[in-house]
Amino acid sequence: MSSAASAAPVANRGAITACVILAVIMQALDTTIANVALPYIQGSVSASADQINWVLTSYIVAAAIMTPPSGFLAAKFGRKNVLLTAIAGFVVASVLCGVAQSLPQIVAFRLLQGLFGAALVPLSQGILLDIYTVEERGSAMALFGVSVMVGPVLGPVIGGWLTDNISWRWVFYINVPIGALAFAGIVIFVSETKRDALAKLDWFGFGMMSLFIAVLQLFLDRGEQLDWFSSGEIMVEAIVCAAAFYLLLVHTLTAEKSFVNPRLFLDRNFAISMVFIFVVGVTYLASLALMTPYLQTLMGYPVITAGIVMGPRGIGTMLCMFIVGRLIGKVDTRWLLVFGLGLTAWAMYDMTGWTPDVSQWTIMSVGFIQGAGLGFLFVPLTTIAFSTLPAHMRGDGTGLYNLSRNIGSSVGISIVSALIVENTQTNHASIAAYVTPFNRAFDAAAAQSLSPLTAAGRASLNELITLQSTIIAYMDDFKLLMLMSLAVMPLALTLRKPKATPASTDHSAVME
């Protein structure tokens, strides 16, 4: 961090903090605020159940791609200039999302949102670290962490209220006043950093990584719809994805200064933590993507109710992050990770038994437990990931670490969405095999309305079978997420016990 900014007038420090926190909250809100509005967006743009999740994955993928080079852009063009450009671009992209009339339009504009929004969190964090002293950074990062976690708490509730009372388009328009305040404050109070005209970026490595991530996501999003490798498009995407990964790998291992520093993976704690944070990304946002259609489509919840019952998940995360902050250094970090994974697996196990008759209290309590599991994972995992990494490698490490989390989130959403569609069809075929005019169960008086001998009966029967097939498909997805949480648990035993490290250096990395 530059020391020049640390000389910022104390009188302006509160205003600077408020402005950058606003920018962070705006970006964090958009990670979850659109979730509860997805069924409404789906109807407006005529998208299928798996296609509508592109609205979520496009944003995450774009943010994943643009997060690592944000430091280079700030060094080259000045941090204030890049931050102002990011806020302005994010607000314009938000307005475009609100006026979108088709699925390709809203996906393209969500990509723009992600591209501009990627720099908001790391650059805002850099400003806070600069304007507070070393002794004050712990408190500053706690405040910063709360602002990041406000999104998962308030996103579904605010999104639900806006969708129910105004329109789903306002989940994007709400960024306009927030962005305008943040932009004005940064223009007035934040000073520019010194530019480095000699700053360079490994464009080939960055390009191959971006191509690999983008095509992998396209492959996963389009695969189920096009019947995977029976489609020529999917074959081409698979080849391009494999080729981009190969070129990235070779370039990383042979280039003098590559975009991805291969020496990072020689550190055992960091390499294992990359696997952990990938699984955390999968289980958290993928389960959020599953919950929205489950609550609104299967259970018939109004959008505002769906947002409220999803709120305790974020509250559990915030509460346990504060608790874990006090436990770090007193309890072995590896056991905190095991406990967090155990809570996540427990929540997923409970969800494998859900039916549309499950109570609101159960949904909220299980959501709280899952959020608590995430709270016990985030800070300890970041602490242990960077505890044995040399200080000069932490900048590269945080970018790659958060890239892994974002890829896990987008890949997880795509996989569970594809499995819902595929398993629903498979389950429907399996159950329908027992539906014949000769099945004596249809002779019962209670089953007369479902008789396969009448058109009305066949329609009702098909609707019931589809409902049951979908419920089983959701159970299978929750079971998969549970097994993933349990599968990485033994890896905690292979981690080295971290050394005691200042909260301001390690705990903050999770927020970038």
From TrEMBL:
**Where does the UniProt annotation locate this protein?**
Cell membrane
GO CC annotation, single: plasma membrane
List the Gene3D superfamilies hit by this protein, alphabetically.
MFS general substrate transporter like domains, Multidrug resistance protein D
Annotated transmembrane regions: 52-75, 82-101, 107-128, 140-158, 170-191, 203-220, 232-249, 270-291, 303-324, 331-349, 361-386
Membrane topology is: Multi-pass membrane protein
Q: Single GO molecular-function term?
A: transmembrane transporter activity
- Does this entry carry the keyword Signal? no
Q: Which Pfam families would you find in this protein's record?
A: MFS_1
Q: Which UniProt keywords apply?
A: Cell membrane, Membrane, Transmembrane, Transmembrane helix, Transport
| Residue span(s) of domain Major facilitator superfamily (MFS) profile | 16-502
- Keyword Chloroplast included in the entry's annotation: no
User: What's the protein here called?
Assistant: MFS transporter, DHA2 family, multidrug resistance protein
